[in-house]
Batch of 2 targets.
Target 1
Amino acid sequence: MPKYHKKHMYRIAEVAVLLGVHKDTLRRWEREGKVKAVWLGRERRFPEEEIRRLLGEANPDTVVLYARVSGHDQKGDLERQIEALREAYGSKFSNVIVLTDIGSGLSTSRKGLRKAMELARERKIRAVACTYSDRLTRFGFEYLEEYFSSFGVEILILNREEDKSPQQELVEDLLTIVTSFAGKLYGHRSHKVKKLKEEMKEALKRLDTDDQLKTP
């Protein structure tokens, strides 16, 4: 059987070849509700997940509940995120995997997120759920969404409104950016990186103090 390409929608002729059936059979299956099709103008297209399902390759009915906080003193919020996700999505899937991270949403070394990406790549999950999009990543959410989608994994966002993150997390993000660029310039173990981080922390503290003094 010919291999299919990783794209989202297929024309009826392509699906007929992949499944080894006549186009009329696909039309009949659609009428009977055995296969789902999406109409684009006057042409029907078949989602990749439908093809995988018919081929017996659909991703298992498993969801990753992903939560993240910026610091160790926010573990209570981490638990609240997981509890909210369990209540919203736990009963909608056969299996649940809980993954968490403590660190900046800009960090590229988060073990929980990397594990979720690995499970998606191995097609072991069907969805990833989080309370806010910035729990998954502070920037570039669209790229992650495209990555997961390419493996048939949907991202479920519980709250679509922007998360009003505390100032502490914004400080962590700034420090992550500074550390990343400084590490490339001086080497990650250089004393210059440590010194720069300390100077940034002091500068941010002064800014915070100034803002509080200006607040009526």
Target 2
Amino acid sequence: MTEIKIPFGWNSYQTCSAQKCSQPYISEQGVSYWQDTNIIISLFFYVAVAGVYDISLLSTEVQRQAELQVSIPSISYNYFAKFNTDSLNLSLGTIQVKNSGYIQVNFKGTNSLVNKKSGYYPQLNSLILSNSDNKSAIYYVKESFSSHFGRRGPSVHLTYNLESKYNIQQFFNEVNVPKYWDAIGTYAMAIGFDYGYFGMQVNSESERRILFSVWSPQQTDDPSQISKDNSVVLVSKGNNTVINAFGNEGSGGQSYLVYPWVAGVSYQFKLVGQPSTEGYSVFSAYFKDPTKSQDYIFIASWKRPKTQAYLSGLYSFLENFNPEKGNIQRKVYYNNQKAIDYKGKEVKVKSAYFTYDETASKQQRLDYDGGVDNTNGYYLRNCGFFNKTNVQYGDIFVKNK
């Protein structure tokens, strides 16, 4: 029999059942410093093979007597775990999993045995599954993988297949994030290309952005290291566009417009790119809100040195950039793509093929999906621990006109 240890630091999230509550600390060591009974800690893992599993909870610190309610909604499991100061490994009994899929285990402190002056609830380090014959039947984010990217969830992409890739000067895409699918941390990237990306983000409860970034030809994650001859230079910008440098995922020039875009509306994105005769290319981004105007809003134009290129490698992606929100589903539709070459001729977009990042390819997370809806266009979906779909890496999607 195999014992499987699922770390909270890689696989758990917190929610609050009240309007305000104190926040626990979720780190790679686990869940610490929580004493509010309104907090719910949820841990997720995927079971591929139905069966009976013994479960227990491992803690490295128990400051006081406490009681936790442990529940698994999908199998109507409820258990009250009583900790005392010498209970570092506590049996939670046996569960029977009848169907493959994601399991959510919730932990909530109760008022029983509570004395706030005597410390926090037990630190949550690992959930242990035992009495399993097949270790490979359980999927979760491993300690050998990045907790940051594991908790963010998988990123998913669509690469557009054009009937001609030659000298594409303009590309158009329409983006619709459905109502209730616009969680904080969402980046619905509309038009990516070999040298940058352009799309819309949910940055906080009160701020949303239209973001356009262009990478420097110098490979570095530190923008301060970019030499002058490799610097992406701003040509011009829209009236309210904010200009920054960016790093960590390559480096270059960043421009964004704070804009209150709304879920359920189809916004239009336009990207223009062309080479100069002086050894650089210029890339320009435009955004249209059809509920406000039929005119495009100019975001910015960037000059990329050591580049002689039109638009190439055209794609879209959906990601979550907030690791605290990886337990919330996201979805986006992409529709009405159009490409125009340097002679003004329209180039047909024939199909799109589906890919994903390492979080999915290394099977740390299985909550990803993509496809085509002939009414709303191509779609991408990720995060939220929905059950595994049949979509495969490299699947090709074709819209019926």
